[in-house]
Amino acid sequence: MPGVDGFMYPNEVELQWSILIVxxxxxxxxxxxxxxxxxxxxxxxxxxxxxxxxxxxxxxLAFLLVAPLPLQLHLGHPERSIEMYLxxxxxxxxxxxxxxxxxxxxxxxxxxxxxxxxxxxxxxxxTKTGFMRLVYRILTLGSQNISEESRRVDDRVGLIVxxxxxxxxxxxHGYVGFIFGSVKANPWWSTPLMPVVFLFSAMVSGIATVLxxxxxxxxxxxxxxxxxxxxxxxxxxxxxxxIDFSLExxxxxxxxxxxxxxxxxxxxxxxxxxxxxxIILQIMLGTLVPLVLLGANQVMKFGESTRRKMYTVAxxxxxxxxxxxxxxxxxxxxxxxxxxxGYTTYKVEFATREGLxxxxxxxxxxxxxxxxxxxxxxxGEEEQTA
Amino acid sequence: MExxxxxxxxxxxxxxxVILSGAARVAFKTMQGETVPEPEKDKYKAAEHWWGMTIDxxxxxxxxxxxxxxxxxxxxxxxxxxxxxERYYVSDDHPEKPEVDSPNGGMNGFPVMDRPDAKSFFVxxxxxxxxxxxxxxxxxxxxxxxxxxxxxxxxxxxxVGCRYCIQACPYGCRYLDPRKNVVDKCTLCYHRITKGLxxxxxxxxxxxxxxxxxxxxxxxxxxxxxxxxxxEVLKPHLATGAKTYYKDLDGSVR
Amino acid sequence: MQKIxxxxxxxxxxxxxxxAGFLIFMAVRAxxxxxxxxxxxxxxxxxxxxxxxxxxxxxxxxTCEVCxxxxxxxxxxxxxxxxxxxxxxxxxxxxxxxxxxxxAFKPNPATLCVRCHEADRARPKTxxxxxxxxxxxxxxxxxxxxxxxPKI
Lengths: 386, 254, 152
Hints:
The complex is a heterotrimer. Chain B is of the alpha+beta class.
């Protein structure tokens, strides 16, 4: 059979989860990571990352709004997806995701943004005219109260929401890891480390996103990009990355040492079909290089423009590396036969419903939404946020 | 007269005349010169059955009749299989590395193997109708489920096509029907076994290698089969509660 | 305390919006979920009858033997006693419903028999097998063997 080496159960030849399902944990991960960076500023009062607070929140929202779209597009019957909310199956790891998602979107992210932006929204509803005035008036929910006292209440409630938000962000992405980690039929996925690895890689990719978005957005808005802020984000990125890499290596070492019935098959796969995406992209370029770049900055002092370049390169490589990691999990988990006797091939289509084109569109869409959000809810001038 | 008696006996015994319908039944009634009582509308009671299947490896000749019949009975799309047959070739030196083939699921039989002598046999596969099924556990909406009589089924009007169940099945028994964009799989011919018939694959199996089993029926030969043979399920370490039992299954089968 | 309550009016509004959303969701849920859902378990109970209602293609040997009792007798005395009629003749439910217009499939012994009897190492040793090109000498199986009772 074309594309098949060795023996696959006949129904396994066709891959079920395409590049769109690679995007899903990728996008969700960026949300969780960006939110956790934002909460550093708010809950732990890390002054250096304060300038990124609002940008990180809006970035999280932009990606969160897009996160379910690849799933929706992938479904055989998208019009039935509401069933996940109507009759969620209690034992299904996937069913609960809808509720975790909704909780995170409504109770955590939108609430925190609304509380934080309420003063701006009320002022905008007074100063804007025409259609935008109406939009802002709706967003005020009909309350124009922005007294000192009401803002203090907002601040208290906002802090509580953020504190609830941190475990929620952990839950959101740990949960995505569990969807894969709980499939006992698939030894490439089935490991209790999966949710933890997903969580830390989510934080890595989210922090890297904010590192890049902060620079680009503030350049475009004509706002300063503070070096102290970049240094701080890069520092956190490095530490979280070290944890993430250690966990992934732990998983790898454990697999190699245990060498269970699936090992030969998976080992062969990593050295052939996944060699480029796993060894080269994920581990070499996507992890070791950024770790060296970021690590060097922790022990040596480079000039400002060198640092900026190093951080940017590290950030971009990290984003690519985490994408490769999602790819290797999702696609890699379907390339080998559950009989451990053969391998199939995944050919990415281009302009089909689950092809490369919609995938690229879905990757760009959050940036478009972010642009709209930045217009709608401007993060404000430096003096205000500081 | 003797013959007529036989026919009537047959009808009474098998109780399968439900499916004798339309013209044939009318013709037959006339021929008999008597009125055949209409069968009760529905005397099937799910609570009285617990379905599964047994497969005798030593009897399978790899003819592929079951695969063909299944496709005809259930309209299985080309290239996908509710049941299929694998041919194993296990060398003496490397029993842990068997060579397996299943061209077009074994539907058209197997090409003659021109190889040095070694252990070789056929393994028919189908849904194991697991009692603790990982696919049912995984379905997010309740579109796949275990029926009260122990058959794992898919509600194709409810399936969203997320394919999580396909990932969750350790045996590769599920596929997405490309015509309907919903998951499809072996129903153990639920539309047949609940009418007193056997499954299509069992009906056409020339050597009786496959047998439909009703574990709740005390007279079912499955009880003798389970008692007197070495019986195993596929991938027992996954504890799926599989109810497709194989007699004399070789350790190399996965 | 009173002051805090007075200053939290906007939060009450937010809570009302969320509550309204929740109520709409519950109403939609009650309206859309199929009536038979949960009847037997976490699935649509009515689907069991829907699946049962599917028509059959294979009539089953008992039905064939109602009319073809002579063949059944011949067969029951020979080596092919265990075979179902449709193993060779294919799905015949349509034929049993209307025997005059729908004819049963008549297989060609030249291609039919080898499906089971061509020698293959994977076949059970006790099962009769031949290498057809040595065994038949170019003749069709049917020239010597009668499928319903194959022993010569």
